[in-house]
Write a structure and sequence with these properties.
single chain, about 70 residues, alpha+beta, two-stranded antiparallel sheet, two-stranded antiparallel ribbon, 2 helices, 4 strands, about 35% helix
Length: about 70
């Protein structure tokens, strides 16, 4: 995979899963904790969109028109 002519590093087999969260949703979560959170409490901000790293990298390359080439 390449992005701007440089190889896009995919570590391991790319099958690691992450919970992807839109930046605006993350910011809303942080703001909610700042406004309504309690000192000493723990808050985890997450979504419900679990996807493999390799799948997300392919999607980003497709959306940016960079395609998929062997690294």
């Amino acid at each position: 995979m390449r992005f701007q002519g440089e190889p896009l590093p995919i570590y391991g087999d790319g099958r690691q899963q992450r919970d992807w969260l839109h930046v605006e949703d993350n910011c809303r979560g942080i703001l909610a904790v700042l406004e309504r959170g309690k000192i000493g409490e723990v808050y985890n901000i997450g979504g419900s969109h679990v996807e493999e790293n390799l799948s997300m990298a392919k999607r980003l390359l497709r959306l940016t028109g960079k395609g998929r080439d062997p690294a």
